[in-house]
């Protein structure tokens, strides 16, 4: 018996040795995917650009309700744009869509080259009246103080609109002529579905037979201290966007009654059980697509032991899924998420409602779709008393296709990032929020989502939140990036 145990122990040691060797070989062979390019000389940027963004923030182009537009604010905004960027206004072709969205075209010299489209949106989310006293600076004051530009839109999304126009204006002053045509599309209602802005623009492009080599919209950002074991900042280039749907759940019982004589189950209780079951049965976690590409790009730049883990998905995949599932932001990149957001039921505390309703929001991982979410929810709830309903087409849409990281578009963005931010690790990523780019899938096989600003994790809470701000350095670097990208893309 002792001899058998010794042999078994030796066999286990042998297997562990083989396993260690395989892990070591794969870790050593986990090669960097970063391209080697020289950083460009720092492009001089005048402090005058701060005034432009500040003035843009001071015009409250707020979107509150779909189909309703603050006409006066948007007219004022475009009057400001035209007066501030006089060369773009006079030298580029331009037209408006649905009165408040704007398209520019900078014709290229080589008509055989497919054009490129740069996108942004001019509307911003409102500021809650109850939170105004918690803002350090006036949310629509555009203050330039303490090394920052403050106000709603500095991160989402006037940074991109004004930053792009600053770069265009600089190139026009230099008499730059692009080889390929460059388009610029600025929607006015992204924060309330984008139907009258981005979608209408995309429809017009399609009617005109215009398609694009690649498209760049807002999206992922550059992040400091993005992951354990990774020292450099990461430039996250969104190569796909999650889908979106909100299901309505309605629990219906034959009758209500007095709360002093409650039945075993009430409409509120039935609905609560349905929501609980949805949350207790999450969608499957998957390490593939854009998320897998992210780890393949950042993994080689990590220190041990994290590098070894990401180099050996075959061994550590289950452990990674479990760990990533623990954080809200990391959980969102590996599965379709479930978020109950609204509840309604009852008219008085002592009256049993016969009906209760809820809204549950889902952000859908590429590879799944709205129908999959609907069927999953019905299967998990499995209660004929709960009616599950899909939204209309505007409020529900499937994930985007995954763009090609070997395409011209990704490579030129990657190159431009490395030229302006040489310390950054460039990696594909999955965008978990919603952008106007979803309306343009039919116009290009390669759509990317990236806002070229370096942020901390704490800064992420400022997007749509309190004390939105952007550092002066980050803003100037964003303009440098756009100028470099415009030149690299137009060749």
Q: Which properties best describe this structure?
A:
single chain, Alpha-Beta Plaits, alpha+beta, 2 domains, 491 residues, four-stranded antiparallel β-sheet, eight-stranded mixed β-sheet, Aminopeptidase
Written account of the structure:
- With 491 residues, this protein is an alpha+beta fold.
- It has 2 domains: 48-240 and 399-489, 3-Layer(aba) Sandwich (Aminopeptidase), CATH 3.40.630; 245-381, Alpha-Beta Plaits.
- It has helices at 2-28, 48-58, 71-84, 86-91, 158-173, 195-207, 267-280, 289-298, 306-311, 313-324, 328-331, 370-381, 408-420, 457-460, 472-489, and strands at residues 93-97, 101-106, 116-121, 144-145, 148-150, 182-187, 214-223, 234-241, 243-252, 257-258, 337-345, 351-352, 355-364, 386-389, 425-431, 447-455, 469-471.
- The strands form 4 sheets. Strands 1, 2, 3, 6, 7, 8, 15 and 16 form an 8-stranded mixed sheet that branches. Strands 11-13-9-14 form a 4-stranded antiparallel sheet, with helices on one face.
């Amino acid at each position: 018996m002792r001899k058998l145990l010794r042999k078994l122990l030796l066999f286990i040691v042998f297997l562990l040795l083989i396993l260690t060797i395989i892990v070591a070989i794969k870790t050593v062979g986990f090669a960097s995917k970063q391209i080697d390019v020289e950083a460009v000389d720092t492009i001089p940027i005048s402090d005058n650009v701060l005034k432009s963004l500040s003035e843009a923030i001071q015009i409250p182009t707020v979107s509150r309700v779909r189909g309703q537009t603050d006409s006066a604010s948007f007219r004022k905004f475009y009057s400001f744009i035209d007066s501030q960027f006089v060369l773009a206004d006079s030298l580029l072709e331009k037209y408006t869509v649905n009165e408040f969205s704007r398209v520019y075209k900078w014709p290229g010299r080589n008509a055989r080259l497919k054009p490129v489209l740069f996108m942004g949106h001019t509307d911003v989310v409102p500021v809650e009246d109850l939170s105004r006293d918690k803002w350090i600076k006036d949310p629509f004051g555009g203050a330039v103080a303490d090394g920052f530009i403050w106000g709603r839109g500095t991160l989402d999304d006037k940074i991109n609109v004004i930053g792009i126009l600053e770069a265009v204006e600089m190139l026009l002053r230099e008499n730059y002529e692009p080889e390929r045509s460059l388009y610029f599309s600025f929607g006015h209602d992204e924060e309330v579905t984008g139907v009258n802005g981005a979608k209408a623009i995309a429809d017009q492009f399609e009617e005109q037979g215009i398609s694009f080599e690649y498209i760049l919209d807002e999206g992922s950002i550059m992040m400091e201290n993005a992951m354990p074991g990774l020292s450099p900042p990461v430039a996250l280039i969104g190569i796909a966007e999650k889908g979106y749907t909100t299901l309505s759940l309605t629990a219906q019982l034959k009758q209500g009654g007095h709360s002093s004589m409650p039945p075993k189950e009430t409409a509120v209780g039935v609905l609560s059980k349905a929501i609980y079951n949805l949350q207790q049965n999450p969608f499957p976690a998957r390490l593939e697509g854009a998320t897998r590409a992210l780890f393949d790009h950042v993994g080689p730049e990590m220190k041990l032991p994290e590098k070894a883990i990401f180099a050996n998905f075959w061994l550590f995949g289950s452990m990674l899924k479990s760990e990533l599932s623990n954080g809200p932001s990391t959980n969102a990149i590996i599965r379709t998420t479930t978020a109950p957001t609204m509840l309604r039921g009852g008219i008085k505390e002592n009256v049993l409602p016969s009906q209760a309703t809820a809204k549950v929001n889902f952000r859908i991982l590429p590879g799944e779709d709205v129908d999959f979410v609907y069927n999953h929810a019905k299967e998990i709830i499995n209660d004929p008393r709960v009616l599950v309903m899909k939204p209309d087409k505007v409020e529900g849409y499937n994930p985007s296709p995954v763009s090609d990281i070997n395409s011209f578009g990704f490579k030129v963005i990657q190159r431009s990032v490395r030229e302006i931010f040489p310390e950054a690790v460039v990696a594909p990523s999955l965008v978990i929020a919603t952008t106007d780019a979803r309306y343009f899938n039919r116009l290009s096989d390669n759509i990317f989502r990236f806002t070229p600003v370096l942020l901390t994790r704490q800064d992420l809470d400022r997007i749509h939140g309190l004390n939105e701000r952007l550092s002066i350095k980050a803003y100037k670097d964003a303009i440098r990036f756009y100028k470099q990208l415009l030149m690299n893309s137009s060749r």
